[in-house]
Structures are given as structure tokens and as C-alpha cells.
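Late entry, evening session. Most of the bench is empty. Finally got around to the prediction I had been postponing all week. Sequence below, unchanged from the version circulated by S.P.
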Amino acid sequence: MDVEMKMPDLSTTGDEVRVVSWVVEVGGQVTRGAPLLEVETDKATMEVEAIASGVLKRVLAAAGDTVAVGQAIAVIESAEVAAVAREGRPPEAAEAGARKDSRTSDVGEENLRPTATPAAPAKAGGMFARNRARAPEPLAGPAAARAAAPAATGAAAPPALPLSVAQRTVARRMQQSKQTIPHYYLQRSFDAGRIVALRSAATGEPIAWDAFFAAAAARALARYERMRCRSDGDQLRPQTADAVNVAVDIDGDLYVVLVSTPAAKSLAQVSAEIRQAVERLRAGDAEAARVRPADITISNLGGVGVETFLPIINPPEAAVLGIGAIRPQAVVVDGQVVVGQRATLTLCVDHRIVNGRYAGAFLGELVAQLEAFAGA
């Protein structure tokens, strides 16, 4: 008897997931409780287990497809359910028996039911095709008129660009941040000559630029504890993560890499930790993509030539540090104009937690730490 499997609720903050790959091919044997497919949620990549034993008869969502919780994703020809039916029990009893045998604590009873009619075959392109073109959703009203307009003039409308699960999550969180957190912004330039020299003098693999800023931020936080607090209604709650998040871009998706206790580590150790985490993200490591609490996030756009920008606070943190490009500039030293290496830092702060004077003092301490590094 055919059993229709639906996408279970994986307890994420989003209601959609993206199919990454199927562990079992159509026609292959599946075992109840064994991995059947991998999906990407807004938090991580995880496995979804089969809800019945038998043969994978049909796949209703190909790799690359985005599916909603409760949407049918596969049909399993289950010997277990068929055996129950042969015992003479009505279909309702067979379905209830299948539910009882399935792992309902993980997938929910609604994920298991016999199919009433054969499901449509998978779209052309192959079950394992990645980034497959999706048919656009039908439009109505003014949107339909706008979509039809290019056809009248002979021009084809450009296809919509679907967002990944990670991109949708970031968009939602950043919108929430800007709408609910009273941001204000402080800027200071600093002499980057010391860190440029240290990076140039280091042997072996160059120190990651973000290692300098993560270590300096952690050292400044040790002196300005209020920057670690979180807003909780009419009170502030201290945060004791002793960690800094580093924003990284992986193939267009934005993640944060956690660096724990950076103030207690050498620059080389912090650099290696950041690079290793980025490699794990590129390899699809679900643990590396997991969001964990930190005291502050740093975002560095200096690598693409951006001089200054205003980043958005990563809730529930109190601040985010934006880092611009290091550039040669004319500066005055002992009354003489010389060329120095300088960059601009922008600190975006939650006004509910700290005022401008306190945050300014923290930013000054951070600059002092950057200009005082003695070695890697």
C-alpha cells in the first residue's frame, strides 16, 4: 500500500526548507527511522527520516526545491501497511496502525497516510538536479497585467530570482532588527599601520584580517561589560558568552562564524579558527552553520573596497562593528604631513542598552587595542 510522506516540522524559525539531496533513489529500499533525504533549514542542514519501511516509489520534491511544512514530498510503497490491510482491517485501521508504528514523535501523525490517487511524476531535470528552474507562480490582478506587458512588445520578462533559506532568514531577521531596535551610529578612524605590519611579517599563512578585529573587540568588551548586556523589557540581562561573531559570505549566503574566547588566544589561533569555520561552512557542515550566542558581531567589507558602511545589529546583541577598507591617507604626525595606513570603524549600537558616551568610550578602547598589537 502506498504511504504519502509529508515534510515534518523541524522546529526551525521558518516554515519552509530546501531539499538538498535524496539519500535513497526511486526504487530503492527504505527503512523506517533511517535517513531518507537531507534538507537545508534556516539554521542548518539536517536529515529527514523515513516514516515507513518499503520501496521509495515516487519523489515529489527534487533537490533544490523549496517545500513547506506539511507538503507531500514522497510516496513509499510500504509492505507494513499492505500487510495490515491483508489482515482484513478497514483502511482507517490500517492507517492508524501505520501511524502507531511510525516515529510520530519526530514526524507527527499527519505525515503518514495512504494516497488516494497516484501522485504526479517528478518534473523533468532529474531527481538530483540542483538549482532547477521552477515554474513561476500564477499572477493575478495588476501583477498579471505587468507580467503580460513585455510580451505585447516582444520583450521577455526576466525570471524571478529565488532566495535561499539562509537568505530569507537573514532578510527577516534584519528587517525585524531595523524595525524594533533603536540604532545609532558612531565612527572613528584608526591607524592600521601596526596590524598591516604584523600581517606582513607573519610567517606561513597570513593572519585573517578579521582576527585582529575579533581579538580587539573581545579585549575592549572586558573593560566595558555593559556592551555585553541584552535588552529584556524594563531590565538588562548580562551576556556571558565570551565570544565574537564574524559575518562571512559563503556563495551569496550570509553566516556568522563564532570565535570563542578570542582575547585569550593569539592572533594566529584566532585566524586559524576563523578559516577552519569558513571551510566547514563551504563543505556544508551543519554544526558550523548553527547560530550560537556571542557578545558582538563584526562585519568587514574592506576586502571589496568599501570605506564606511552602517551594518545592522544582529539580535539580540547590543552592537555590531562595521569595518572599512585600509587605505593610504595623508595624516599629521608631530606637525608633519605623512602617509599613513588608516581605516574607519562604524559601531552600530542599541540605544536601549547603552548611551552614546559609553559606546564612544568602548569604541575608543577598541581603537586603542588595534593600535597596540605587539605580535601575532
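Two things to note before I forget:
The CA atoms of residues 167 and 252 lie 8 Å apart.
The two ends are 65 Å apart (CA to CA).
Will write this up properly tomorrow.
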